[in-house]
Amino acid sequence: MLKIDVSLLSGVNISPEVFAKTLKTIDDGLKVEVRDNDVIIYNLGVDRYSAKVIRMAINKAIHYMNRY
Q1: Which of 24, 3, 9, 13 has its CA nearest to residue 64?
Q2: Which residues contact 23 (CB under 8 A, 6 or more apart)?
Q3: Most buried among 26, 31, 32, 66, using CB within 10 Å?
Q4: Edge-to-edge strand order for the sheet containing 2-5?
Q5: How many independent structural domains does the chain possess?
């Protein structure tokens, strides 16, 4: 389990809902839950793939927020 407080991401202004939805889009095998400003990710390992998924989700969510 990994808990990310989206409001503490430096220089990033994305909502937890958008971040969670983007994570599910990238990897449908993840169980993602939103609580307040926190995004809780289950079924996530501690390997480079998991870090890559999180970075990709942040970048795609930022891109989405900037477009709309």
Answers
A1: 13
A2: 30, 32, 39, 41, 53, 54, 57
A3: 32
A4: 2-5, 38-42, 31-35
A5: 1
Question: What is the pTM (predicted TM-score) of this model?
Answer: 0.78
Q: How far is CA 43 from CA 18, 24, 27, 29, 62, in A?
A: 19, 12, 11, 8, 24
Residues near 47 by beta carbon (within 8 Å), at least 6 away in sequence: none
Separation in Å, CA 50 to CA 41, 47, 65: 10, 6, 22
3-state DSSP of the chain: CEEEEHHHCCCCCCCHHHHHHHHHHHCCCCEEEEECCEEEEECCCCCHHHHHHHHHHHHHHHHHHHHC
